[in-house]
Design a protein that fits this description.
Layout lengths: L3 E7 L3 E6 L2 E2 L1 H4 L18 E6 L6 H6 L2 H5 L2 E3 L4 E2 L3 E4 L22 E7 L3 E8 L4 E9 L9 H8 L4 H21 L9 E8 L1 H8 L19 E4 L12 E4 L9 H10 L8 E5 L3 E7 L4 E7 L19 E8 L2 E6 L7 E2 L1 H14 L15 E4 L2 E3 L1 H25 L8 E5 H6 L2 H6 L10 E5 L1 H9 L10 H4 L2 E3 L8 H8 L6
Parallel strand pairs: 1-7, 8-11, 11-13, 14-22, 16-24, 17-19, 22-23
Antiparallel strand pairs: 1-2, 3-6, 4-5, 4-7, 8-9, 9-10, 12-13, 14-15, 15-16, 17-18, 20-21
Helix pairs in contact: 4-5, 7-12, 9-14
Length: 504
């Protein structure tokens, strides 16, 4: 007989049992506890407070946690096991997941389709009536792979361990299959056959879902030969779906420019534009496209996870308790916290706002120096911005700004200047454009910067209306030039210059 222990989570009020000795990392992710470093004990993102019971200290916890935190009962969930009954304090995590309700042109087809945005952090699936283009049902969830790391490179490293790739493939198949089952059992689901399922995501998500080798993406020059569309049957996925529809993960463009950017090109009609427009996804890998109907150039740049709140001392997702906005007010600043809850962390949009406000107030110097002597800036206790946080932001924004500069140089046509810049994804949808311009992240006039929503999901929906033989998108991909910044002669020089904040 197995020996079980009881775990109670506060303030959620949830109670469940696990086998004695179970790692807390295995059970707390689904309740909202994050593991940004993949459970390596390098950050404090998975802190929980022991209210009753005991979690033994170990060297990893003593190295990361301060003596005061240890005294107050805080422990790292990634370095702990449930050896006895526990009452743990965790904050209630509520995250807004960006879906898509855009209207679009289409040629009607018979049956139903399901489009899935396979994000690094979140998953969104929509059931579409292909005769009317109407979205009949929506399901979303956190990507369960995130318990092995908040950013894609941490996940790649896990995939290189024994059985790691198969483990990541299995759990993403299971979770997306669960979302599909919920869609098909929704009251709004018409009594029509499901004919096709399309998925879009970055290159790492593409490889992990499809069971492809991620080793080429783990080291220089970060190029893979397995970028094409991948087709399966629902039965191949282990999904019990009537009619066994075709499942297609859309093709990637090159390097770390994934099918989410291909979907973004479709969603914004960039490939049909007469004028030159841009598209950027501000994430761990900033993916950028500049072009029009004549030609397109794309690149990815390793921005790091700062925009997603990772590697920031008190960073977190855009969830309850996150400082998401910082405004100048009466020669000072005011913070907006999501969920009208006490502040407990700083998400990406709040980080960009804080840096912009700090520059205006003289708290942050153009060099990035904080307070002259590096003293942490108390935004809203207990949340503070540290010198290391500013450096992480400078690395992220410098990489994006340098990527734009190199692509614009590569375009080299002064008669065709960029007329519009689309921001895709959740971070691009919520970021303050003025703050992004102030810190030098997006050096474009504000009226040219347009939040475009979840273009990955919209593009995956548009693909549902194409003939299955056209889902490899060869003609479109043939018009896109992929520029590898890792081997570009000027990138490091421009990157170093772009890390500085503008004087004004």
């Amino acid at each position: 007989m197995k020996n079980y222990v009881r775990i109670e989570l506060q303030p959620l009020g949830e109670v469940f049992q696990v086998e004695r000795g179970t790692p807390l990392q295995d059970v707390l992710f689904e309740h909202g506890v994050e593991f940004p470093c993949g459970g390596k004990g390098r950050c404090k993102g998975c802190r929980v407070r022991v209210l009753s019971g005991r979690i033994s200290l170990n060297a990893r916890q003593e190295e990361v946690l301060s003596s005061r935190e240890i005294q107050d009962g805080w422990r790292l969930a990634c370095a702990a096991r449930a050896e006895e009954d526990l009452v743990l304090e965790i904050a209630q995590w509520e995250t807004n997941i960006l879906t898509d309700e855009s209207r679009f042109s289409f040629t009607p087809r018979a049956g139903l389709g399901i489009a899935v945005d396979v994000g690094t952090t979140t998953l969104v699936a929509q059931l579409v009536d292909l005769t009317s283009g109407q979205v009949r049902a929506v399901q979303s969830a956190l990507n369960p792979q995130a318990r092995f790391g908040g950013d894609i490179m941490t996940r790649v490293q896990h995939a290189l361990t024994d059985d790691g790739r198969e483990e990541l493939r299995r759990i993403i198949h299971h979770e997306i299959g669960r979302l599909i089952a919920l869609l098909l059992h929704a009251p709004e689901c018409p009594a029509q056959p499901l004919s096709v399922i399309t998925l879009a995501g970055n290159t790492v998500m593409h490889h992990l879902f499809c069971g492809l080798d991620v080793r080429p993406l783990s080291a220089y020059p970060f190029e893979s030969e397995s970028l094409g569309a991948q087709r399966f049957s629902a039965k191949d996925m282990g999904w019990s779906v009537p009619g066994d529809p075709t499942v297609c993960f859309l093709p990637c463009i090159g390097g770390f420019v994934g099918s989410d950017i291909l979907a973004g090109i479709l969603a914004t009609s960039l490939h049909d534009s007469e004028t030159v427009v841009g598209l950027v996804d501000l994430g761990t890998n900033g993916e950028i496209v500049i072009g029009n109907r004549d030609k397109m150039i794309c690149a990815s740049t390793a921005a790091g996870p700062a925009f997603e709140g990772a590697r920031i001392e008190m960073g977190m997702r855009a969830a309850t308790g996150a400082i998401a906005e910082v405004h100048l007010e009466n020669n000072g600043w005011k913070c907006h916290v999501l969920g009208n809850a006490p502040a407990r962390g700083l998400c990406g949009s709040g980080l960009v706002d804080a840096a912009a406000a700090g520059l205006e107030l003289g708290i942050i110097q153009p060099s990035g120096r904080l307070n002259g002597d590096g003293t942490p800036w108390q935004l809203m206790p207990p949340v503070a911005l540290t010198q290391k946080d500013i450096r992480e932001l400078q690395l992220a924004k410098g990489a994006i700004a340098a990527g734009f500069q190199i692509l614009k140089e590569q375009w080299a046509d002064e008669a065709q200047e960029l007329g519009r810049l689309y921001l895709s994804g959740a971070f691009g949808n919520y970021i303050n454009r003025g703050s992004a311009r102030r810190i030098g992240l997006l050096d474009f006039p504000l009226e040219q910067i347009v939040p475009a929503g979840n273009t990955s999901l919209l593009g995956a929906k548009l693909a549902l209306f194409r003939d299955p033989d056209e889902l490899d998108f060869r003609p479109l991909l043939g018009r896109i030039e992929h520029l590898s910044l890792s081997v570009h002669l000027r990138f490091q020089e421009v990157f170093a210059e772009s890390m500085l904040f503008p004087e004004q």
